[in-house]
């Protein structure tokens, strides 16, 4: 085990972009979107995150389902995409996002090493339930924690604090995984040990906090935490 993670008792994962590929929704509509899959995915995600931050700052919380739909409406309008039935189809696919290929093996390895596993996500319980309820995830994931429980999206300390409360461990006993730089930095500033799963090869953030380790995919976490 890497000494930076000694004392860790629980592994907590962001859901969207870390365990589950948010790009798989638009990719599932490539038959009608064609080369607009990439631009739609990027803009939809950008507005989804921006709306979550803005609503938290405004004190106007709405669940992530509404935020996701509102962001999609903006993205479709901005890109001039008008296809009958596409909005409904995209939102349906968002509730069935595909896990990244390494996820089942990583969860099995970390659970086998004795760690408690949990999700901490902006997603509402109804959005997360079908994602978690699949082989390779449900048998290992002990807790699914939604920011709905505190009415504030990440990066609010209330969101990270809810994981501490639910798991009954200290912040420093949690190893948090996120593919989102803003999330990884904020979680580090809160007091978690953090692995930034930098799938996109993004530059480092200039924010309070700093992840303990940067990895390219979740499989690289296993030897750091289990020594295998």
Protein architecture, described:
Helices cover 43% and strands 14% of the residues. α3 packs across α4 (64-78). The chain has helices at residues 24-27, 30-33, 37-58, 64-78, 86-94, 103-112, 125-132, 157-167, 181-190, 221-226; strands at residues 10-13, 20-21, 98-99, 116-121, 143-146, 174-178, 193-197, 213-215. The protein folds into 2 domains: 3-21 and 98-226, HAD superfamily/HAD-like (Rossmann fold), CATH 3.40.50; 24-94, DNA polymerase, domain 1, CATH 1.10.150.240. The model has no long low-confidence stretch (mean pLDDT 96). With 228 residues, the protein is an alpha/beta fold. The termini are close together. The strands form 2 sheets. The protein has a 6-stranded parallel beta sheet, sandwiched between helices. It has a two-stranded antiparallel ribbon with strand order 2-3. It is built from 10 helices and 8 strands. It is globular, with a radius of gyration of 17 Å.
Task: Map the helices and strands.
Elements: E1 10-13, E2 20-21, H1 24-27, H2 30-33, H3 37-58, H4 64-78, H5 86-94, E3 98-99, H6 103-112, E4 116-121, H7 125-132, E5 143-146, H8 157-167, E6 174-178, H9 181-190, E7 193-197, E8 213-215, H10 221-226
Parallel strand pairs: 1-4, 1-6, 4-5, 6-7, 7-8
Antiparallel strand pairs: 2-3
Helix pairs in contact: 3-4
């Amino acid at each position: 085990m890497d000494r930076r993670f000694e004392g860790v008792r629980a592994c907590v994962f962001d859901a969207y972009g870390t365990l589950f590929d948010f790009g798989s929704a638009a990719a599932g509509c490539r038959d009608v979107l064609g080369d607009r899959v990439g631009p739609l995915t990027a803009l939809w995600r950008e507005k989804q995150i921006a709306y979550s931050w803005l609503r938290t700052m405004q004190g106007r919380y709405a669940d992530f389902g509404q935020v996701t739909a509102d962001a999609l409406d903006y993205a479709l309008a901005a890109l001039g995409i008008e296809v009958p039935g596409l909005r409904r189809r995209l939102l349906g696919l968002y509730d069935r996002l595909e896990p990244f290929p390494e996820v089942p093996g990583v969860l099995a390895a970390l659970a086998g090493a004795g760690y408690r596993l949990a999700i901490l996500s902006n997603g509402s319980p109804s959005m997360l339930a079908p994602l978690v309820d699949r082989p390779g995830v449900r048998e290992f994931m002990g807790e699914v924690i939604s920011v709905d429980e505190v009415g504030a999206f990440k990066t609010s300390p209330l969101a990270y604090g809810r994981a501490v409360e639910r798991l009954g461990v200290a912040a420093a006993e949690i190893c948090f995984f996120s593919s989102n730089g803003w999330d990884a930095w904020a979680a580090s500033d809160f007091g978690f040990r953090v692995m930034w799963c930098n799938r996109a090869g993004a530059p480092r953030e200039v924010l309070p906090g700093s992840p303990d380790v940067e990895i390219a995919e979740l499989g690289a976490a296993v030897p750091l935490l289990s020594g295998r």
